Each structure stands twice: as structure tokens, then as C-alpha cells.
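pipeline/complex-builder :: batch 7 item 3
reading input block
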Amino acid sequence: MEQRPGGRSARVRDAVRQATLAELAEQGYGGLTVENVAIRSGVHKTTVYRRWGSVEGLIADALGIAREEPWPIPDTGSFQEDLREIVLLVQRGFADPVAGPISTAFVTAAAQSGDAARSLHDFFTARHEQAAEVVRRAVERGEVPAGTDGAEVIRMAVAPIYYRLFVTHEPVTEHDAIRAADAATVAARAGVIR
Amino acid sequence: MEQRPGGRSARVRDAVRQATLAELAEQGYGGLTVENVAIRSGVHKTTVYRRWGSVEGLIADALGIAREEPWPIPDTGSFQEDLREIVLLVQRGFADPVAGPISTAFVTAAAQSGDAARSLHDFFTARHEQAAEVVRRAVERGEVPAGTDGAEVIRMAVAPIYYRLFVTHEPVTEHDAIRAADAATVAARAGVIR
DNA sequence: CTCCAAAGTCTACTCCAGTTGCGTTAAGTC
DNA sequence: GACTTAACGCAACTGGAGTAGACTTTGGAG
């Protein structure tokens, strides 16, 4: 990333990243400013502007870290249960008082900045690919027809959660999550998703 | 809304609304500023700030108008066809060079402003209710089990479109729309959505 | 150890979104 | 047709996001 990765630069980078996440968790995307991140991190404002450019840059960077850490793909032996687990994980993530605002901020930022949008796109591409494993296993067990598009099954399952959160602004319950997962399960079994 | 609805106030209101939509269509949400709307409409900046408050206020107002105009609910005689029509209508709406940016701006604005979020919520509540008509007819025909949640079927059908557009930032094709509609059709027939 | 340039700091500035206070216009009322 | 006041217009102001340029620190190479 930078030409001098060691020592001071690394400290600055980590301090800013941590401050960004903390601000996002407390204030959400609307309250995130370069100035506050600079103060909180102890790094000078101009430095943040030079290396990250803007609020969107801070978020794009934070997203890069988020993409690194893998998530637990369930393997219960049942396709329906696996899908339910995945969707519930998403739903609970947004309900979490710390992780929720941060995840929300990522989506909101991507709606405004091309950079953040690309980062988020890559993030979800990786997630879909990982989660599609449960579909591959279901195909092997004969629960789901061969040729089923695994990533698309995941999209179908989680989409209603995001739809409620970011489009219609309706509350989301665990029941909603389970229902969405089950609908995707039925559709996949019927061979509609290919 | 205002205590003096006639004459000048009405002209101001209409000019600002029209300018808002024009700016949104051309510039999108990112390029929408109160100042530009003021200039374009010929109304003074201060006046726009007083009556609409901010960019979000302009959008919340524009959404109010959008909610008024009803949309065509299909009645092809086939549940599957009806659902496909609805989802394709949504997909084509976003692909449209004029309506697309405006719709996108609504969603983006709602992600940041509580007022816009409430307006959008009401908007979609009305849409879901209207579109649920196709499910009611399907129940009458015996295509779908009684007790099926009509609004939820609509959510399931359109959610993947919005998910791709606003969350993962993936391209959306007509094929995606049809597949999503068909998946919702299968799930509804199976009695999973209630 | 020495050197040098990359990276960070600091101060002062610009610019523009949003506000304020006051004067002007015209909508609604009798 | 005169009066009241809601609503609009106007110009000057404020505050904070973002920039510019000179100066200082320090990581890394020889």
C-alpha cells in the first residue's frame, strides 16, 4: 500500500482504522467526519486527508479489513438448516449494537461513493462464493439438482433482509430471516435457481 | 401543508419540485444541492431552505408525489406471469435513464435521512399492498394456498433486484428479474410464505 | 552512522453549504 | 379596495470541510 510500511506509517494506519470503526459504531455513517477520526486517532487532519482522501476512503479501507476475516460457514448436514444459519447470522449481525451500525455504514457509503461500491462488491462476491459451499454440499447429497447457481441461492436467501433494512426500512425479525431462508430452500430444491 | 396554499406559494412549490426531479434525473443524488435547485427553479435559496430544510427534505417531498401515482398491476390470469411482470417493471424502471437515477436517489436519501426513510417506508407499504392483489387472485384461483402473505411474496420477488442494485452493486438483467419472480412463485405455491 | 526522501505535522487559508435579520410582495379577509 | 401578515427575496454572515505550502520527523538503504 505505502512505500514505507514499517514503524510510524503502520502506527498511523492502525490508529486511523481503529478510530474509524469506533466512530462508525458510535455515530454511524452520518456522524463520521475526517476531523473526528483525526482527533480520535491522534493523527493530524491533513495526514488523514492525504492518505485516505475522504470519509468514503476511510470506509473503503475499513471494508478491506472486514473482507479479510472469514466467516463460519455452517455444515449441519441439512441444506435447510445451513441456509437458515447463514441468514440468521446476517440478521443478528445487523441487530448487534456494535457490528450493526458499522455494516450499515458500509452499505450506505457504497451508495454514494464509487470506491466504496467497488470494495463492497468485492466483499460480497467473496461472501457469496464462500457461502455457496452449503449449496455444493446439498448438490452432492442429492438435495438440490446439479447446475444450481450457489451464489444466487445465497442472494435469494439474504436479499429480503437487506431489502427491509435498506430499501423499505421495515423492522427485521428472526422469523423473517427463517422464512426467507426456507423460501430459497424450496426454490433451490425445485430447480428454479440456475 | 402551508397556510397560504394559493398563488405564489403554489408556483414556488411546483417550480421547486420540478427542478428537484430534473436535477435528480441529470445529476443523481450525489449531485443534488439546494443551491442548484434554487437556481434552476428561480426560487431563492433561503426560501428553499425554509420550506424544505435540506436536500433530504426535497427528496421526501418528491417521494410524496411519487406515491400518489398508482402503477399498473398486471392481471394475466397466471400467477407466475403476474409476478414476472411486476419484477420486470421494477427492473426496467431502474434501467430507465430518467426514472432510474430518481428512484436510486430516493433509496440513497432514505439511507441517510430519517424523514426520507419514513417517506420511503410509506411508499413501499402502499406498493406492497397494491401488488399483493396478484397473490389474492392466485389464492382465489387455487394456485396458491390460503393464508399466504401477499406483501411478503412481493418482497421476496423484488428483493434480489434491490439487493444487487444497492447492496452488492452487481449488474441486473431481465433474466435475474424473471428468476427471482419464479423463485417467489414456487415458494408461494409451496406454502412457505405465510 | 550517515544521509535522504517519504511520510507526518502545523498554520493559515479558501470555499461553500447553511443561517440570520430585515425589507418587500402578495394571498386571504373584511 | 384597504389591511394584515404569511411567505418570499435579499445581502451579509458563520462555521466547518477540505487545501496549500513550509517545516519536521523518521524509516530504510548503503
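note: The interface with chain B takes residues 29-30, 107-108, 110-112, 117-118, 120-121, 124-125, 128, 152, 155-156, 158-160, 162-164, 166-170, 179-180, 182-184, 186-187, 190, 192-193 of chain A (CB under 8 Å).
queue -> next item
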